[in-house]
Design a protein that fits this description.
409 residues; alpha+beta; Protein Transport Mog1p, Chain A; seven-stranded antiparallel beta sheet; 8 helices; 20% helix
Length: 409
């Protein structure tokens, strides 16, 4: 389901542009030296089965020493290959999953899996639908370009890349896979340092990537649990989508439909909001005027208000959006709470506004804080969310599309 232009994150244009993808992959794949991954099996060097012929025969003994080579080989098989017939594991909120290799557990700082020492990492995430198409086209790219290899997966034919890099004193081998989902691309990136390559071999990683599957939707309860706030009322919206940056999108559009022709809401937290009452009016107005994709904007309401007994601000505007020049009415609510504030943006075609506005207020009034206050989804970091949640002081990041990954200069 394509998002309306004013909801698209910065860097996801018509050609599948993605904000800093190449930089992110380079940073993520090459990061994290940590402790070296130790060998977890023994090869039993110096011991053989059977005895020399010139020695007296002895009764065979079943000892741990005799079994070490066999146990080592068995451990290697168990470690390097996914469990047969296992179901794919989906990171929370992600429509892409896989059967992780034994020794990899859910990661706590990114969507995916990692080894205990955090040296082996598997990133599992979603990209715009155009990413898969670009990978498919790159198979027949010009001489000298990086050409992905087809790989049959549980999600269908995917496109697979292997590349070598470096991180400090260790050489890092990285693997990337693109698969097609319904309206999105699945993306898996694997990092294996040189000292773990005997365990996580090319064949083992390919077996894991072949298990990649996609799901049509993430259960609503799973999505809502990821948000830094509680949502107790959905007002009958048919499509619920929690985004990776801790924001929530609600719409009546079905998959494949243009969301600009139906009521839509997006809810999230922003930081850096003013605490002084006089500054909030100017801040709210500037923020509303910077909603992307709006043209011929006319502000109709701009006034302070109370939202759930806390200070708030409402800004309404009439505008035109989309290629079809749809006339819409948009409302922005800010619910202030120190430096972290709730922001709600809701839009509907003008002929649907009255009915939609009632539902917008139901959702807004059903939002509750967690742990007694708004919780910054990225504590300790400069919060620079994409799209409509970029406050006026933020500037768009450098854009980089997938072509730069597949066809580097």
């Amino acid at each position: 389901m394509p998002a309306p232009s004013w909801l698209r994150p910065v860097g996801t244009g018509n050609c599948g542009e993605m904000t800093g993808v190449r930089r992110f992959i380079s940073t993520f794949i090459r990061s994290g030296n940590g402790e070296r991954l130790g060998m977890v099996f023994s090869a039993g060097h110096g011991h053989t089965f059977g005895q020399p012929l010139n020695r007296p025969k002895r009764q065979p003994r079943c000892s741990a020493m005799n079994l070490r080579p066999l146990l080592g080989a068995l451990a290697l098989v168990l470690i390097c290959f996914p469990a047969l017939a296992a179901d794919p594991v989906y990171p929370s909120g992600i429509r892409v999953g896989l059967v992780p290799l034994i020794g990899l557990a859910r990661a706590t700082t990114f969507p995916g899996f990692e080894s205990q020492d955090q040296n082996v990492r598997v990133l599992v995430t979603e990209l715009p639908a155009a990413a898969f198409n670009e990978a498919a086209k790159a198979v027949s790219g010009p001489p000298g370009s990086i050409r992905p290899q087809p790989l049959e997966t549980a999600a269908g034919t995917g496109y697979f890349l292997i590349d070598n890099g470096g991180s400090g004193s260790d050489n890092i081998k990285r693997y990337m896979l693109f698969v097609a989902g319904e309206g999105f691309s699945g993306y898996v990136a694997v990092q294996v340092p040189e000292n773990a390559a005997k365990i996580y071999t090319d064949e083992a990683v390919k077996q894991m990537l072949a298990s990649v599957a996609t799901r049509k939707e993430v259960p609503v309860e799973e999505q809502l649990a990821l948000l830094p706030f509680r949502v107790t009322e959905l007002a009958g919206f048919r499509t619920v989508r929690a985004m990776m940056n801790g924001t929530l999108m609600l719409t009546d559009s079905k998959a494949g439909e243009n969301t600009e022709n139906a009521p839509v809401m997006i809810i999230g937290l922003i930081t850096g909001t003013p605490t002084e009452t006089d500054a909030r009016s100017r801040f709210a107005r500037e923020l509303a005027l910077q909603i992307p994709g709006m043209r011929d904007i006319r502000v109709t309401v701009s006034e302070p208000m109370r939202i759930s007994a806390t200070p708030g601000y409402e800004t309404r505007l009439d505008a035109v959006t989309g290629k079809d020049k749809t006339e819409v009415t948009v409302v922005q609510w800010l619910r202030f709470n120190g430096g972290v504030s709730l922001r709600v943006i809701a839009s509907a075609p003008r002929d649907q506004w009255l009915a939609a506005f009632t539902r917008f207020r139901e959702v807004r009034d059903g939002i509750r804080s967690k742990n007694g206050g708004w919780r910054d989804p990225n504590p300790g970091k400069a919060h620079n969310p994409p799209g409509p949640f970029r406050s006026p002081v933020h500037r768009p990041a450098n854009r980089q599309n997938l072509s730069a990954i597949l066809h580097p200069p």
